[in-house]
Amino acid sequence: MKVPRSLQIWRLGIVNYSDALKLQEKLVSDRKIHKISDTLLSLQHPPTYTLGKRRTDHNLLISEAELKKLGAELHYTQRGGDITFHGPHQAILYPIISLRDIGLGARNYVEKLESTMIEIASLYGVKACPGQKGETGIWVGDRKIGAIGVRIQYGITSHGLAFNIDPDLNYFKHIVPCGIADKDVTSLRRETGNGIYEAVEKPAPHVTYSKEHQCHQVFHLF
Amino acid sequence: MALRMWASSTANALRISCASKTPAFALSRCFSSGTQLISFPLPIIIFCKLMVLDGLKYASSHEWVKHEGSVATVGITDHAQDHLGEVVFVELPETGASVKQGGGFGVVESVKATSDVNSPISGEVIEVNSKLTQTPGLVNSSPYEEGWLIKVKPSSPSDLESLMDPQAYTKFCEEENAAH
């Protein structure tokens, strides 16, 4: 018998990476003791480079000093995945979900995150698909439009996905994104031309709308 | 769905457990494209195509422990490796580290997700599987043998009592799979 589940969605706007990390740690602890239900954070970060558990900093092509001059921060994290960039107009979702409660494994969870991004892309007429084996994330041809990096503790997820609506793609030039050297990074803006005019002119509300859509999509998929 | 039920009832029909060592058995192993008879030297219970070994104890977080006198070997189950996907990185503790029953001792990474691994028993780590640095995929290909994670000197024999036997673990996996 399926127990009814609820998902609380927090729309946070632009949040500093450290603050988002502290919030996720608190939510994971609270979720572990069943103090809260499954929760979804929807947000953006200021310009931030992050590394995963394997600390693949050979994929950072500039020094930390140069990175700071660009107005960006660097963070080492415990999530899976390689190096990536987060910035304004990149929609981020951090689901804090108990996979254990629903008997879902890491592989299926990540596939669902990929499906979410593929569905969002298709809403804008962009045909995206999952990567080849070992290239988790979503792609339009050989251009990466969505990235995933997840941490699972006590069967509870944190971190999540980052979907490029219209971030400044120049920031990606300073890394080997996700450790994959010969592939490009793209965005919904780049793939649709002027198709998402509103996202450019009115970034906050429209991106909020897009994220809300994503939230509903994620909710639907879970 | 029909294949799953058939596989499950085949598993039940062929379920083997015994107290003493026995010679090779011919067993049916179900695949989505058909069945294949194989000989296998250890008595095993089959749940669909994921294996649960007899003689081990299991934690609800999908780790197994094989207790052999003063040494206990710990790893993750076939169910766990299947749900993780291809393992690309394994982080293990140092020898001499303490582990606590239910506490995390390491991390595996697969499909851009890091997942913590918990110890089914308390004790001191006396050996870690260094092969996993170069060949983390052993966790997928041989979760009960070459893909073992750590060896522990158990500090509390009663830890084993709170773990599941193979039949209980098989049922636990079935219930978990039915939940989604």
From TrEMBL, chain A:
Signal peptide: none annotated. Residues 34-217 form the BPL/LPL catalytic domain. The keyword Acyltransferase applies. Keywords: Acyltransferase, Transferase. The record marks K144 as: Lowers pKa of active site Cys. It comes from the Eukaryota. Pfam families: LplA-B_cat (PF21948). The keyword Transferase applies. Substrate binds at R79, G80, G81, D82, I83, T84, F85, H86, A147, I148, G149, G160, L161, A162. The active site is at C178 (acyl-thioester intermediate). One of its GO terms (biological process) is protein lipoylation. One of its GO terms (molecular function) is lipoyl(octanoyl) transferase activity. Its EC number is 2.3.1.181. Pathway: Protein modification; protein lipoylation via endogenous pathway; protein N(6)-(lipoyl)lysine from octanoyl-[acyl-carrier-protein]: step 1/2. Belongs to the LipB family. This is lipoyl(octanoyl) transferase. It comes from Citrus unshiu (Satsuma mandarin).
TrEMBL record, chain B:
It comes from the Eukaryota. This is Glycine cleavage system H protein 3.
